């Protein structure tokens, strides 16, 4: 059990900065997930914690000890890899006991610990199998047993579920959470899958372009994203964004507007802002009581419907003439999620309302969040 | 075949049935091969294999025939030994000369050289195969270039060097020089056969997934530990190949080994010096040379049979999930 601290850690390769001045405190016993798109530096960050890569600048502390210049074996960590990385020339027992044998534990102790670790991940009776004789899930469990058998202070996981099939992935997700509860060890988990990050972590650290964007509990990242990147990355399907300007009495963009008091939200008329709203915070007009604070109604046209079973994703256009964006959502397009029993067809005129309680505003230039809900103008009294 | 309007060949081709021609054996066989090319390929394979086996194994067979023919080498037939058959040569080679000592010399030198080459080439192969660093390509090219030098080019300076009396060596060596010691043989030979092994091992080591090395280092090895505990065992076929090649080359080596010693068994003269030792001033004991050659082949033959297991076993299968 140990805490992990990164102090202005930077990793530069010849001409790229993979990780830029990262400061991160991971508490003892915490399940922290590093999440971000491919190539954002999350794996490099983990490798620096593990000691597989040396930081160009800054210090890494594990359990209060400066380990920046220590090799991986002396850092008191263990790791589960994306490609599982079991030693193919050793059977399960030898794989799990590899680290213990290197550290010259006596025979009985090794046997006892391997047995314990194997029990935790339910690997009884497979001790003399070779990795190639096992299924993907079994191999992954062996890898986890190998990691927990040494009772490490910090447990690093680099996309351990990425190579498993969908069903197994969900199953292993709950297994890992149970494991964390049982072991009570610090776990640092790397993934590009925000669903895994949301479901398992105590806190998530969103990274983009080598820069730490936000470190917060999953729901905080979801409800109060610090900037536009976090807002767009966390949550699936992603948030709708509208680029526009602040007017004297609210927000105006090419296709939509919204009324509020600029002063009350710390914005000035003329300022370029981005308005963001999640698909689940947009409701059909006749169901506007679902919204905590419904906005005025907007007339839109349905474009494409994607029934998912438990909900329906509807791509809407503000105008029949709007071109659907070739890549991503265009300005005049909005994605909302509807209840599965909603009766609506494609290319139909419908009316929607936004839940103003959950409308986010971001500064267009810095992309920093300005507010996470829009208040009614106090004195006006009338619904806009 | 009565129709005179069409050409008989064309007509013959149009027939679905094989015409009942009176063909000889080879003609019939050729016809079958034309209609079924696979037969031709298989035939070619058998013929090639047959010639290869004959050219490699027949000299060995003849060697055996000469070895059991005693003095009457002139009476040895193409396939039969001279009569009476005498097996005494296989004992005589150990009494007339200490041939076992010559074989032991070569065997020991080859073993030491193989161990040195595998160890050094493992380190070099790891560096070239797995690390990225400035100047890697030029350095690799340099290794390649050195391996192109004819070994004879190194001989004169090395011979001068090994014949020089070095005071530092005086307590270990009799007269302070490396001449007539095994060091004078396996040092240059190890260096000469190193580049080949470096290239073989580099290729093998570079194919071991990076994750395995990382896993070993996390579990508690150093980089070197990961090399010898994980990468080398997984590259067993490559290590065996490099080892066998080096061993055979050094074991059979004559140029350096004969010139760095005075040709006497107690002075670490190699096996080939022993074989040639049965050639006197006035007579050549061909049957003894033949017997000695057969005995000398045995260690290498045994080694290859043992290493074969490693070479063919695919240890890396299913190493990492694709």
Structure description:
- The complex is a heterodimer of chains A (384) and B (322).
- In chain A, helix 2 packs across helix 3.
- Chain A has two domains: 229 residues, P-loop containing nucleotide triphosphate hydrolases (Rossmann fold, 3-Layer(aba) Sandwich), CATH 3.40.50.300; 134 residues, OB fold (Dihydrolipoamide Acetyltransferase, E2P).
- Chain A contains eight helices and 21 strands.
- With 384 residues, chain A is of the alpha+beta class.
- In chain A, strand 12 and strand 13 form a beta hairpin.
- Chain B has 322 residues and is an all-alpha fold.
- Chain B has a domain of 180 residues: Orthogonal Bundle (MetI-like fold), CATH 1.10.3720.
- Chain B is 67% helix and 0% strand.
- Chain B has 14 helices and no strands.
- The interface between A and B is medium-sized, with 29 and 23 residues.
Radius of gyration of chain B: 28 Å
What does the main sheet of chain A amount to? 6 strands, mixed
Between the first and last Cα atoms of chain A, what is the distance in angstroms?
55 Å
Number of strands of chain B: 0
Mean pLDDT of chain B: 84
Indicate the overall shape of chain A: elongated
Strand content of chain A: 25-35%
Sheet-strand content of chain B, in percent, reads under 5%
CATH topology of the domain at 98-277 in chain B: MetI-like fold
**Which stretches of chain B are poorly predicted, pLDDT < 50 over at least 5 residues?**
314-322
The total domain count of chain A is 2
Largest interface: A-B, 29 and 23 residues
Major pleated sheet of chain B: none
Structural class of chain A: alpha+beta
Q: Which series of helices and strands of chain A comes N to C?
A: EEEHEEEHHHEHEHEEHHEEEEEEEEEEE
Please work out how many helical segments of chain B DSSP would assign: 14
């Amino acid at each position: 059990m140990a805490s992990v601290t990164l102090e202005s850690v930077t990793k530069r390769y010849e001409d790229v900065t993979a990780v830029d001045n990262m400061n991160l405190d991971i508490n003892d016993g915490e399940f922290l997930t590093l999440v971000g798109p491919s190539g954002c530096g999350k794996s490099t960050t983990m490798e620096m914690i593990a000691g597989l890569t040396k930081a160009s600048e800054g210090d890494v502390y594990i359990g209060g000890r400066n380990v920046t210049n220590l090799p991986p074996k002396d850092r008191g960590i263990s790791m589960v890899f994306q490609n599982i990385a079991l030693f193919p020339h050793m059977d399960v027992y030898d794989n799990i006991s590899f680290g213990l044998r290197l550290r010259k534990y006596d025979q009985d102790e090794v046997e006892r610990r391997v047995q314990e670790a194997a029990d935790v991940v339910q690997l009884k009776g497979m001790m003399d199998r070779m990795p190639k004789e096992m299924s993907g899930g079994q191999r992954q469990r062996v890898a986890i047993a190998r990691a927990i058998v040494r009772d490490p202070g910090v447990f690093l996981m680099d996309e351990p579920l990425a190579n498993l099939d969908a069903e197994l992935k969900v199953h292993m997700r709950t297994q890992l959470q149970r494991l964390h509860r049982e072991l009570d060890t610090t776990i640092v988990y790397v993934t590009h899958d925000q669903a895994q990050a949301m479901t398992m972590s105590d806190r998530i650290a969103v990274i983009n372009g080598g820069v730490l964007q936000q470190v917060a509990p999953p729901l905080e990242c979801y409800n109060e994203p610090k900037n536009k990147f976090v807002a767009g990355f966390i949550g699936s399907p992603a948030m709708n964004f509208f680029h526009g300007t602040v007017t004297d009495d609210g927000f105006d963009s090419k296709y939509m507007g919204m009324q509020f008091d600029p002063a009350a939200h710390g914005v000035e008329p003329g300022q370029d802002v981005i308005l963001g709203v999640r698909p689940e915070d947009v409701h059909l007009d006749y169901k506007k009581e679902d919204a905590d604070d419904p906005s005025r109604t907007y007339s839109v046209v349905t474009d494409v419907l994607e029934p998912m079973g438990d909900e329906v994703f509807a791509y809407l256009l503000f105008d029949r003439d709007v071109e659907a964006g070739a890549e991503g959502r265009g300005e005049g397009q909005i994605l909302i999620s509807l209840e599965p029993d909603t009766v609506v067809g494609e290319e139909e005129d419908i009316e929607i309302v936004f839940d103003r309680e959950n409308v986010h505003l971001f500064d267009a230039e810095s992309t920093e969040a300005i507010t996470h809900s829009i208040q009614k103008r106090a004195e006006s009294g009338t619904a806009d | 075949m009565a129709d005179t309007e069409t050409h008989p060949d064309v007509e013959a081709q149009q027939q679905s049935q094989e015409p009942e021609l009176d063909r000889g054996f080879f003609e019939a066989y050729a016809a079958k091969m034309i209609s079924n090319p696979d037969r031709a390929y298989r035939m070619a394979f058998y013929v090639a294999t047959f010639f290869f086996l004959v050219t490699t194994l027949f000299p060995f067979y003849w060697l055996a025939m000469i070895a059991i023919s005693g003095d009457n080498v002139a009476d040895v037939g193409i396939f039969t030994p001279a009569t009476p058959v005498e097996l005494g040569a296989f004992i005589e080679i150990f009494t007339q000369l200490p041939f076992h000592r010559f074989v032991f010399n070569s065997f020991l030198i080859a073993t030491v050289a193989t161990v040195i080459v595998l160890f050094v080439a493992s380190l070099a192969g790891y560096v070239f195969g797995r690390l990225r660093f400035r100047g890697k390509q030029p350095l690799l090219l340099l290794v390649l270039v050195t391996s192109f030098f004819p070994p004879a080019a190194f001989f004169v300076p090395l011979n001068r060097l090994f014949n020089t009396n070095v005071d530092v060596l005086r307590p270990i060596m009799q007269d302070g020089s490396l001449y007539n010691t095994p060091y004078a043989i396996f040092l240059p030979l190890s260096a000469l056969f190193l580049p080949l092994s470096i290239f073989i091992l580099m290729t093998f080591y570079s194919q071991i997934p990076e994750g395995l090395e990382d896993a070993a280092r996390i579990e508690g090895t150093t980089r070197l530990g990961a090399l010898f505990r994980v990468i080398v065992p997984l590259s067993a076929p490559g290590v065996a190949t490099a080892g066998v090649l080096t061993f055979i080359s050094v074991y059979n080596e004559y140029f350096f080994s004969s010139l760095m010693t005075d040709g006497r068994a107690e002075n670490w003269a190699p096996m080939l010096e022993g074989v040639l030792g049965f050639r006197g001033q006035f007579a050549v004991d061909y049957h003894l040379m033949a017997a000695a050659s057969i005995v000398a082949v045995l260690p290498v033959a045994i080694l290859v049979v043992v290493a074969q297991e490693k070479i063919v076993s695919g240890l890396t299968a299913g190493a990492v999930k694709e």
